[in-house]
Amino acid sequence: MATAAVITGCSTKTDSGATPKASALGAATPSASMSAPPATPSAALARLLEGNARWVKGSLQRPNQSVGRREAVDEEQDPYGVVVSCIDSRVPPEMVFDTGIGDLFAIRTGGQVVAPVVTGSIEYGPVTSGTPLILVLGHQRCGAVKAAYKALKERKPLPGDLQSIAEAVRPAYDVIAKAKHADPVDAMIRVHARQTATGLRRDPALAPLVKKGGLAVVSAYYSLDTGRVEVLDGAPAA
C-alpha cells in the first residue's frame, strides 16, 4: 500500500529488525553522547533542558555529531523528542538543545503553524516508535506572528499563502485582543504555542498516548536575547 510505503520510508526502531552496524558502533568512542535515549516524557524534557542550559552558557558538548554516530543510526533511528518550531533561522532546534544526529524529529513551519500534513509528521514518532515528548517551541520576535498580528488587526490580508499562517494563528489573536498587553505580539506568540500544544494533546492519534502517560506535549518559549527555553505548560511530572 502507498500509505505503508510512506510510513516505512523513514525507518525507526519499529520499522525493521535491523540493528546498527557493529563496525559503526565501534567507530565511536564510548561517551555520554552515545547514551541511550530517555524513555519517559519527563526524562526527555530534562535532556532537552540540560542541553539548552549548555547552549545558554556557551558550554556545548555537541553530542552525537560524529561520523560514528552518523553510521550508527544509518539503518534505524530512535529520537526521543519531536520539536515543532518556527522556520526562523535564529532558532535551530538541534543547536538550541545541544543535540545531534538521530536525537530529534525537527518540524519547522512559519510561526510553528500546524496543518493536517504537519500533524501527520508530528504523529509519526510517537505513533510508530513511541517517541515520548512533543515540544511546541514559540520564540521571541517571531516575524510570522508579527505579520499575522498586523494583518488581522488592520484587516489587510497577507499576500499569497502567507494569509494561511495568519488564519492559523487567529485564535491566539482573538485571545490577546481582549486585553491590553505591553507587547501584544509577544503575548500572541505565547498564547499560540499553548494553543497548539493543547490541540495536539486532543489529536485522536496522540490523545490515547498522552492519557496513558507515555507521551507529553509541552509548549515552550525561546528567548533570542538569552538563548533560554522557558516551559509554558504541559511539563510532565517527574
The number of helical segments is 11
Low-confidence segments, given as residue ranges, are 1-9, 14-32
Helix content: 40-55%
* Helix and strand run: HHHHEHEHEHHHHHEE
Count of the domains: 1
Report the CATH C-level class.
Alpha Beta
- The total beta strand count reads 5
CATH topology: Beta-carbonic Anhydrase, Chain A
Distance between the termini: 41 Å
Outline: globular
What does it look like?
- With 238 residues, the chain is of the alpha/beta class.
- The chain has a single domain, classed as Beta-carbonic Anhydrase, Chain A.
- It is 44% helix and 13% strand.
- Helix 7 crosses helix 8 and helix 9 crosses helix 10.
- The longest helix is centred in the C-terminal third of the chain and has 18 residues.
- The protein is globular and about 55 Å long.
Outline:
The protein is of the alpha/beta class.
Secondary structure topology:
Blueprint: H1 2-8, H2 22-27, H3 41-57, H4 67-72, E1 81-86, H5 93-96, E2 104-109, H6 116-129, E3 133-139, H7 143-154, H8 162-168, H9 170-176, H10 184-201, H11 207-212, E4 216-222, E5 229-233
Parallel strand pairs: 1-2, 1-3, 3-4
Antiparallel strand pairs: 4-5
Helix pairs in contact: 7-8, 9-10
